[in-house]
Write a structure and sequence with these properties.
By secondary structure, this protein is an alpha/beta fold. Helix 2 packs across helix 11, helix 4 packs across helix 10 and helix 5 packs parallel to helix 6. The radius of gyration is 29 Å and the shape is globular.
């Protein structure tokens, strides 16, 4: 029998009968037409994301057992009660004394009883709604929320085009514009010091810039009552707020650093009182470097930091019960060979995690920090910042300061690093949102449509989602080596330069009430003509 006689008319030899082949061809044609129609009719889709209101999805890590954390808390209370805190401001000492503290005026030492601390933790609000220029930029500070701030308070700025330089007004305004651009940066910090503006006039410049270049929650330095109250007045004038309306809600914030170990200086104590009395947020942040101004151990440094934070929080509640205040810490280690601060280290991360354990005892929203000791935006800088950042996230920090752009342990802010760090912040923000797993996402139709060994590029399931399903990188380059080379073989920092330059060139002007701006400028001109307001130290 010839081999041909073995052929089967039902296609059992591996060939397809005509009807089946035609049916599959029609299916392929329909799919091709569907893909073509989707491509022709699609509008450039924008991925729906909300980076403004984030919640922490990560389980909080613990370094110490609960009993040891409570032992540290008790040690902090014993420290405040028996060792005391040196308070340089007489008004602050008087407030502590009125609340029941023992005060030695000759040594300026204040001994705060634990019952005072406990009462303060009861009266301090656990959730703080901060009102920005527009409601969509409002921030709620409470446990479980996630808020990022870029680098803060650096004396220098640096970028690949202009090099490292003392911070100036131009840098401050440019960094404000970049912060406004990215939703993942929800609050304004002091960014960089505009050193070309006289210190007695600087608060006029920084407040005007914040009011006209950004719609996010502004920052005010606590550099004495005159500067603080004038800053409050500028904010009220520009926003059209009466003093009663201003004090009814939170409209700004400040950072308060203790003078570790165990000292609260004049401007910081005054800032706690001023912001509390006007019902604005103070973020109490001891800066305790292990081995320098704090014990060399994580447990010892965090016991000191906790005590100082509790002392600051107590002062706010003595000034105004119910005043909004955040617990905070910035604790890392030093290089014991040089004494230089180090950041993004295992000890830094452990301290952040312990801070989370202690903060949860207070129930308050709280602040932590990332950062880097690297001198340029290199791999060291990226590694240290990310390690510090994950310490904040796994500790459950409400506010993470220095989350982007910080270099040299805070001596400079880098434009390029700001961009590359924001890439990481945006990816973390993606992790803060739920990922759906409903029937449409499971995609059984797509699974049934594609035969073994096929691909899903052209399925309807893919075509409906391909523009918006995945995070699109800001500075990362996913092209192959050949394409990357053809585009100039730029590294991440070089690409970041182009990104920040484009943002600044294309930044839209905010909608400003011309009448209010004129009123603000008249106020500033009058105050400047009167000599401004010198900082208090």
């Amino acid at each position: 029998m010839s081999q041909d006689n073995n052929l089967s008319t039902d296609g059992s030899d591996g060939t397809l009968p005509a009807e089946t082949a035609n049916k599959q061809q029609r299916s392929r044609n329909r799919k091709r037409r569907r893909v073509d129609n989707l491509r022709e009719n699609r509008v450039a889709a924008k991925r729906p994301v909300n980076y403004r209101q984030l919640r922490n999805p990560f389980p909080q890590m613990a370094v110490f057992s609960e009993d040891r954390v409570h032992a540290m808390h008790e040690a902090s209370l014993d420290l405040l009660e028996n060792l005391g805190l040196k308070v340089l401001l007489p008004e602050a000492r008087a407030l502590y004394k009125s609340g029941g503290a023992r005060v030695n005026e000759s040594t300026e030492m204040v001994f705060i009883g634990r019952e005072m601390v406990e009462a303060a933790l009861v009266s301090a609000p656990k959730s703080i709604h901060c009102r920005a220029a527009k409601p969509e930029y409002d921030v709620v500070l409470e446990p479980g929320a996630v808020v990022f701030q870029p680098a803060a308070g650096a004396p220098h700025a640096t970028d690949l085009e202009r090099g490292r330089r003392p911070g100036c007004a131009r840098d401050f305004n440019e960094l404000l514009t970049l912060t406004q651009h990215f939703d993942v940066l929800q609050m304004i910090p002091p960014l960089v010091e505009p050193q070309d503006v006289a210190i007695n006039l600087r608060h006029y410049f920084t407040m005007r810039s914040q009011l006209t270049l950004t719609e996010k929650l502004p920052f005010i330095f606590s550099r004495g009552t005159p500067q603080v109250e004038e800053s409050f007045e500028m904010l009220c004038r520009f926003r059209g707020l009466s003093e009663e309306e201003f004090q009814s809600h939170v409209h700004t914030h400040t950072i308060i650093n203790t003078n570790s170990p165990r000292q609260l200086d004049i401007p910081m104590a005054q800032g706690l009182i001023d912001f509390a009395r006007f019902n604005q947020v103070s973020i109490v942040t001891p800066f305790t470097l292990m081995g320098a101004m704090a014990p060399i151990t994580v447990a010892g440094a965090m016991t000191l930091s906790h005590a100082e934070a509790l002392a600051g929080i107590t002062l706010t509640q003595l000034a105004r019960p119910g005043a909004p205040v955040c617990y905070g810490t910035f604790t890392s280690n030093v290089d014991m060979k040089s004494g230089s601060p180090a950041f993004g280290t295992p000890e830094h991360m452990k301290a952040s995690l312990v801070a989370g354990q202690l903060a949860r005892l207070t129930g308050l929203p709280w602040r932590c920090a990332s950062g880097s000791a690297a001198n340029i935006a290199d791999a060291q800088a990226a590694n240290e910042n990310q390690f510090g950042l994950w310490g904040c996230m796994l500790a459950g920090a409400t506010i993470t300061v220095h989350a982007a752009g910080w270099l040299e342990g805070g001596l400079s802010v880098s434009y390029e690093k700001l961009i590359t760090d924001i890439e990481v912040l945006q990816m973390i923000a993606e992790m803060c949102h739920n990922t759906s797993a409903d029937d449409a996402e499971i995609g059984m139709d797509a699974l049934a449509e594609i035969q073994p060994g096929g691909h899903f590029f052209s399925t309807e399931h893919t075509m409906q989602r391909y523009q918006t399903e995945f995070y699109q990188p800001l500075a990362a380059d996913w092209s192959n080596h050949g394409t990357w080379s053809e585009r100039g073989a730029k590294d991440a920092s070089q690409r970041a330069t182009g990104i920040w330059q484009n943002i600044l060139q294309q930044a839209p002007s905010l909608e400003i009430d011309g009448r209010k701006l004129e009123e603000l400028d008249r106020f500033i001109e009058k105050q400047e003509n009167n000599g401004g307001a010198a900082p208090v130290s």
